[in-house]
C-alpha cells in the first residue's frame, strides 16, 4: 500500500491512486455519505455540455464524471465528446473497463502540469477533486487555460473551507477521526485517505482559488458553495479576445 504526502510527488500520487482504483468510486460514495452524486450533478450542470463540444475532464479517475458529461442529448444538453485524462494508469484502466462501449469518452494518461494537447482545443475544461493533488496547481490552471478555446469555460469542483464555524469545526473532526476509521473498512488502501484528509486541510479557501483563476487569465470568475462549503464549485471563462500583458 502506498500513501503520498503533501509534497505531492507525482510518482507517489500516481501509485497511491493506482492502489485505490478498483474500489475508488464505492469508497468515495461511502465517505461522502452519497453527496458525491449531488456534487457530480452540480458540476455537470455547471459545465453544461452541448452537442458536438469537446470537453477535457482532467483528473477524471475512473471516468464517472466523464460519463455524466458525455450522456446523450436531452433538452439540448449533452452529446459532448469527453477526453478523460488522469495521471494514474490504474484509474484509466478501470475507467476503460467501466465505460467500455461509450464512444463519447476517450481515456488517456496525462500530466496536469504538461497537458498533451495543443492550444485552444477544448470548448470546456473541468477538474473535480484533483487540483489539490497536483504539485503546482497554478501551473495546472495555466495549462487548462492554454488548452481552452477563447470563450470556453472552466469548472472546478474541489473541497473547500466551510464559512460557518460550527460546520468547519465538525468537518475538521470528521476528517481527523471519522474518515480514517471508515476508510479502514471501505478502502483497499486506508492510508491514502489519511493523505486525503491532510490535503483537504492544507488546501486554500474559496477566495484564494478564485484569485488564482483570475490571475491565470479567466474572467467571469465566481463560485458557489455546496454542502455548506465543504465543497465549492468554481467557474470562469477564457476571454474571447487576447488580453494585454500585465
Automatic annotation (TrEMBL):
Name the pathway.
Quinol/quinone metabolism; menaquinone biosynthesis; menaquinol from 1,4-dihydroxy-2-naphthoate: step 2/2
GO molecular function, a single term? 2-methoxy-6-polyprenyl-1,4-benzoquinol methyltransferase activity
Q: For binding S-adenosyl-L-methionine, which residues are annotated in this chain's numbering?
A: 62, 86, 111-112, 128
Name the UniProt key words of this record, in alphabetical order. Answer: Menaquinone biosynthesis, Methyltransferase, S-adenosyl-L-methionine, Transferase
Q: What is its EC number?
A: 2.1.1.163
Q: Does the keyword Transferase apply?
A: yes
InterPro entries annotated for this entry? SAM-dependent_MTases_sf, UbiE/COQ5_MeTrFase, UbiE/COQ5_MeTrFase_CS
User: What reaction does this enzyme carry out catalytically?
Assistant: a 2-demethylmenaquinol + S-adenosyl-L-methionine = a menaquinol + S-adenosyl-L-homocysteine + H(+)
| Domain of life of the organism encoding this protein | Bacteria
Q: Which Pfam families match?
A: Ubie_methyltran (PF01209)
Q: What class of enzyme is it?
A: transferase
UniProt key word Transferase: yes
GO terms, biological process: methylation
SUPFAM superfamilies named in the record: S-adenosyl-L-methionine-dependent methyltransferases
Q: Give the matching NCBIfam families.
A: MenG_MenH_UbiE
Supply the PANTHER family for this chain: 2-METHOXY-6-POLYPRENYL-1,4-BENZOQUINOL METHYLASE, MITOCHONDRIAL, METHYLTRANSFERASE
Q: Which family does it belong to?
A: Belongs to the class I-like SAM-binding methyltransferase superfamily. MenG/UbiE family.
Any idea what job this protein has? Methyltransferase required for the conversion of demethylmenaquinol (DMKH2) to menaquinol (MKH2).
Put simply, this protein is called Demethylmenaquinone methyltransferase
Instruction: Tell me the classification of the organism that encodes this protein.
Output: Bacteria, Bacillati, Actinomycetota, Actinomycetes, Micrococcales
Amino acid at each position: 500500500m502506498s500513501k503520498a504526502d503533501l509534497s505531492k510527488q507525482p510518482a507517489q500520487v500516481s501509485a497511491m491512486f493506482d492502489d485505490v482504483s478498483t474500489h475508488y468510486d464505492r469508497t468515495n460514495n461511502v465517505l461522502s455519505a452519497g453527496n458525491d452524486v449531488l456534487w457530480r450533478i452540480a458540476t455537470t450542470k455547471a459545465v453544461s455540455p452541448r452537442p458536438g463540444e469537446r470537453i477535457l475532464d482532467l483528473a477524471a479517475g475512473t471516468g464517472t464524471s466523464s460519463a455524466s458529461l458525455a450522456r446523450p442529448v436531452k433538452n439540448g444538453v449533452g452529446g459532448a465528446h469527453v477526453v478523460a485524462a488522469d495521471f494514474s494508469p490504474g484509474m484509466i484502466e478501470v475507467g476503460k473497463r467501466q465505460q467500455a462501449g461509450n464512444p463519447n469518452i476517450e481515456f488517456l494518461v496525462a500530466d496536469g502540469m504538461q497537458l498533451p494537447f495543443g492550444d485552444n482545443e477544448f470548448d470546456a475544461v473541468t477538474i473535480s477533486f484533483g487540483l489539490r493533488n497536483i504539485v503546482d496547481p497554478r501551473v495546472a490552471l495555466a495549462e487548462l487555460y492554454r488548452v481552452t478555446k477563447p470563450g470556453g469555460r472552466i469548472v472546478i469542483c474541489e473541497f473547500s473551507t466551510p464559512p460557518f464555524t460550527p460546520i468547519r469545526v465538525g468537518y475538521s473532526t470528521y476528517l481527523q477521526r471519522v474518515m480514517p476509521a471508515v476508510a479502514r473498512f471501505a478502502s483497499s488502501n486506508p492510508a491514502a485517505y489519511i493523505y486525503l484528509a491532510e490535503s483537504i486541510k492544507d488546501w486554500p479557501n474559496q477566495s484564494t482559488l478564485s484569485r488564482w483563476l483570475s490571475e491565470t487569465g479567466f474572467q467571469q470568475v465566481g463560485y458557489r458553495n455546496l454542502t455548506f462549503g465543504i465543497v465549492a464549485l468554481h467557474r470562469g471563462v477564457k476571454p474571447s479576445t487576447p488580453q494585454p500583458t500585465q
